[in-house]
């Protein structure tokens, strides 16, 4: 199997939920929102999986805001890349993988300005070979085509295999499996949904992927 690994971005390589909480706290303060607004924003956000146009429509209605949904969403996309962070250990892992000859790309759903802003501000653009962003390409995970685009960006063919890494059981693990990749689920303390076929590997945090891939190198792992 070729040394190709395709990483999800939000809550895999970067801590998107912490960035959202920081955004929500600032949003509440700037607009003088009532007590309970922060908790409502976090709950309604759904970990980032709720459509953003729907989310900001709900925000506008809940708090009687005069700004348009497009304006609220645009301000959010501008602010989020400034708030997102990437742990030093994540960058260290990417450096180690590159030294071992791995090709790496990011596969992410989201608006191009928001996602590319996160990739560049955290320095991930200097540590991976390519990225495929749904907002740029008009393709969303779990579609195989987005994984194919990421592999092509690395100069590789997805048909020659590789690994998919992410926190979403459906978008990352099932999507990666459908693309013919070996899968690593980043559990973040969550329980795997019983109704889904399990991933090939599980790591509590993305830094654990380094040991999995180095172990696969040593064992010459092929997907069973």
UniProtKB/TrEMBL annotation:
* Family matches, as Pfam families: Hydrolase
Tell me the domain of life.
Answer: Bacteria
The Gene Ontology biological process terms listed for this entry are: small molecule metabolic process
Q: Which GO terms describe its molecular function?
A: hydrolase activity
- Record keywords, A-Z: Hydrolase, Magnesium
- Family annotation (SUPFAM superfamilies): HAD-like
Q: Write down the required cofactor(s).
A: Mg(2+)
| Name of the protein in question | HAD family hydrolase
Give the organism the record lists: Micromonospora carbonacea
């Amino acid at each position: 199997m070729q040394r190709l690994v395709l990483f999800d971005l939000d809550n895999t390589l970067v801590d998107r939920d912490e960035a959202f909480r920081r955004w929500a706290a600032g949003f509440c303060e700037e607009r003088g929102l009532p007590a309970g607004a922060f908790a409502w924003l976090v709950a309604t956000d759904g970990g980032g999986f709720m459509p953003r146009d729907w989310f900001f429509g709900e925000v506008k209605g809940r708090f009687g805001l005069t700004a348009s949904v497009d304006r609220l969403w645009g301000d959010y996309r501008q602010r989020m890349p400034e708030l997102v962070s990437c742990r030093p250990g994540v960058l260290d892992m990417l450096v180690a993988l590159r030294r071992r000859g791995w090709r790496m790309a990011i596969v992410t759903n989201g608006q191009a300005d928001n996602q590319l802003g996160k990739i560049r501000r955290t320095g991930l653009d200097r540590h991976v070979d390519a990225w495929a962003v749904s907002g740029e390409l008009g393709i969303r995970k779990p579609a195989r085509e987005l994984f194919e685009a990421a592999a092509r960006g690395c100069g590789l063919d997805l048909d020659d295999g590789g690994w998919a890494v992410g926190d979403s059981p459906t978008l990352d693990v099932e999507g990666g499996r459908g693309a013919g990749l070996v899968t690593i689920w980043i559990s973040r303390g969550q329980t795997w949904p019983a109704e889904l076929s399990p991933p090939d590997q599980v790591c509590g945090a993305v830094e654990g992927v380094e040991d999995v891939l180095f172990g696969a190198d040593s064992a010459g792992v092929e997907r069973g």
